[in-house]
Amino acid sequence: GLLHLHGLEHDDEVARSQERERIAREVHDAMGHRLSLLNLHAGALEANATDDPRLAQSARLVRESAGAAMDDLRSLLDVMREPVGAELPPKPLSHLAQVVHESFGAGQPVSSSIFVQDTDSVDPALTRAVYRVVQEMLTNARKHAPGQQVFLTVEAGPASGIVIDARNRYVGTPA
Fold it and tell me: In the beta sheet, which residues pair with residue 166?
């Protein structure tokens, strides 16, 4: 009976994986096509707006936003396609500082204060969420403000819960 039950769980996992892959394909096809068209038309508008710098800049911003949305879509679809067991964080929450400096923060200046206590009883789903949030914050900082110092604070404990704060200087266009 135990072997049969394990087989059913495996079949359910395969079915869920196939369904996630099907949804990811449909989302990629629909949204990817629309974002590509938006990017293409904004690029054409930008190229033809040589006599109107404000229009060219607006078109450039639309084109860049469409490209960023496409990157975000790819990231989301990659997460959807991960096997269920692949979601586990590389290390427990007590190793977050080490992971930030060796992996997540590589290639960018990061000042971090990470205090975690009594994290052995933290639910694995919450641990995964903390790793993902920190990774996404540092990725966004690197993408949208390259070379700028990032100040990361993470406090985690049974009394305080988990507080994650990331700050960096905004680098934008003068307009």
Answer: 152
pLDDT score recorded for residue 1: 47
Token pair 């229009």 is found at 55
Taking each continuous run of H as one helix and of E as one strand, the counts in the chain are: 4, 3
| Distance from C-alpha of 110 to C-alpha of 145, rounded to nearest angstrom | 13
What does the pLDDT read at residue 86? 52
Q: Do 170 and 150 form a contact (C-beta atoms < 8 A)?
A: no
Q: H or E element: which one contains 11? A: helix 2-48
CA distance 95 to 109: 19
The tokens describing 166, both together, are 């990331």
Residue of 77, 76, 78, 70 lying closest to 40 (CA atoms)? 70
Instruction: Give the Cα separation of 135 and 108 in Å (integer).
Output: 13
Which residues of the chain form beta strands (DSSP E)? 110-116, 150-157, 161-168
pTM: 0.51
User: From residue 1, how far is each of 4, 9, 13 by CA, in Å?
Assistant: 5, 13, 19
